[in-house]
Design goal:
alpha/beta, Rossmann fold, eight-stranded mixed beta sheet, globular, transferase, Glyco_trans_4-like_N, glycosyltransferase
């Protein structure tokens, strides 16, 4: 049997953001029958019906809107764009690593704009009893994640066959509240094309506000293969005021589907440099040993970060370890950071790969790791690997480079737009043999960690947000000028 070690979670707490001004308004639901749109109503005093978020009473029959702005000095408060951000891809209490890159963008936007953040959660009767959706039961109606106030309203969804109805149910769920706050919204920002973008366009048309949609990967490399959802996505993209893509590969796919070139521009993700920065490798391994019960990583260490799903390719890296040992005489430890998700669970397949490889591989299954500890793993590794089959613009690669750790990744979708210099990493085909060859060369090569870090400085949230706000501000100025 292969040596598979389960490392305990390091726990830890996120670092709170800057102080925020928070304005709270409680809006009674206009649509009655919350059982249809927001889940079963709990009895008075129960945990579901009577929640407290940050010391505030939260009634789950209300949608509470938080507008937050940083306390940065502003030359002209009235010129700030007021954004309603809708995203079904955001962290929550039970899935803290879900859509962290969207949260980082919203945090950066909040420094220069006023934002209301809504993260709708799908609901259907009995959802909490299915293992795939069980984590949703623990998501509160409102919460504060990494300094950001987020609302989690439930909306009705019928899995699998009637998923194309999700945007309709989402728009219905949010419509009364959007309508009542229309004068406080300049832009509706949707951080996925489906269902967020389709619903956002419906809402924008209803209140006469412009909509932006950001393509992040899943809509183009998965959902576009379904004819019904492809038509919905193209309908929404065609009616949005702005369409952003985080990678040129996603832009090209949208153009192939028929979107006019002038309609879409590439604005990439950035990286949180307060969280991901170089640390001495030995020190990082020592700190991880303290967090994980004293077991220290030694020798050649490879890192793979991502949910335990097939497309992330962890199994390919396990097979690559055996090739690395038998063909190149190099022993290495593979650390896999990630857990099963609603997308799937390939734990059994990983175990099968371990059994096939025998004792020639060493694998550490670290489980889900909080963002505050993830930087230690990047710094402890000699190389970060990404063997995925589909990506948008993976933050894993950017975060690793920010820590000064080189990468080996598949030559797919947005990966080549990040690894553009052989001095920071290598692109390969998706096979154990290709990864083993590239890893053997990477482990032999003496990378300049400072150059790798400096290379990552081309990925900036500040620059991305400046470009986004430049598109929004004209609309915001017009809105305020007419008041």
């Amino acid at each position: 049997m292969a040596d598979a070690t389960l490392a305990p979670s390091s726990g830890g707490h996120g670092i709170r953001g800057h102080n925020h001004n928070i304005f709270v308004t409680r809006l009674p639901m206009i649509l009655q029958g919350r059982r249809a749109f927001g889940g079963p109503r709990a009895s008075p005093g129960s945990q579901q019906g009577n929640n407290t978020a940050n010391g505030r009473f939260v009634d789950s029959d209300y949608l509470i809107w938080y507008r937050f702005t940083t306390r940065d000095d502003r030359a002209d408060e009235r010129r700030h764009v007021r954004i309603l951000a809708i995203s079904t891809l955001l962290p929550n209490r039970t899935m803290p690593n879900f859509g962290v890159f969207v949260l980082e963008r919203l945090k950066s936007l909040a420094k220069v704009a006023t934002i209301t953040v809504v993260a709708p959660v799908t609901y259907f009767p009995g959802a909490g009893f299915l293992s795939r959706y069980r984590l949703r039961r623990g998501i509160p109606p409102a919460d504060r994640i990494d300094g950001v106030e987020i609302q989690y309203p439930r909306f009705f969804s019928i899995p699998r066959y009637l998923k194309p109805l999700d945007p309709i149910f989402l728009a219905l769920r949010l419509f009364p509240h959007v309508l009542s706050r229309a004068k406080e919204i300049d832009v509706i920002e949707c951080n996925l094309a489906f269902p967020d973008g389709v619903a956002g366009v419906i809402l924008g048309a209803a209140i006469g506000k412009p909509v932006s949609i950001t393509l992040r990967g899943h809509e183009m490399n998965v959902l576009s293969e379904y004819p019904g959802r492809r038509r919905q996505i193209l309908w929404a993209l065609g009616r949005a005021r702005w369409v952003f893509a985080v990678a040129e590969a996603l832009r090209q796919k949208a153009l192939e589907l028929g979107l006019p070139p002038q309609k879409i521009e590439v604005i990439p993700n950035g990286v949180n440099r307060d969280r991901f920065y170089p640390i001495d490798r030995d020190e990082a391994r020592l700190q991880l040993a303290r967090l994980n019960g004293g077991k220290r990583l030694e020798g050649n260490v490879l890192l793979s970060v991502g949910h335990l799903v097939e497309r992330k390719g962890h199994h390919i890296l396990i097979d690559a370890l055996k090739v690395l040992d038998e063909r190149y005489g190099i022993r290495a430890t593979l650390v896999i950071v990630g857990a099963a998700s609603e997308e799937g669970d390939c734990s059994r397949e990983l175990q099968s790969s371990l059994e096939r490889s025998g004792r020639s591989v060493d694998v550490v299954l670290a489980g889900d790791v909080p963002q505050t500890a993830l930087g230690l793993y990047y710094n402890a590794a000699d190389v970060t690997c990404l063997a995925s089959s589909k990506e948008g613009r993976p933050n894993v690669l950017i975060e690793s480079l920010a820590c000064g750790t080189p990468v080996v990744a598949t030559n797919v979708w947005g990966n080549p737009e990040i690894v553009t210099d052989v001095r920071v990493g290598t692109l390969v085909e998706r096979s154990p043999e290709a990864f083993a060859k590239a890893l053997a060369e990477a482990l032999f090569h003496a990378y300049d960690r400072d150059f790798v870090r400096r290379f990552s400085e081309t990925f900036s949230w500040e620059e991305s947000v400046d470009r986004i706000l430049a598109r929004y501000s004209e609309q915001g100025s017009k809105a305020h000028g007419g008041e």
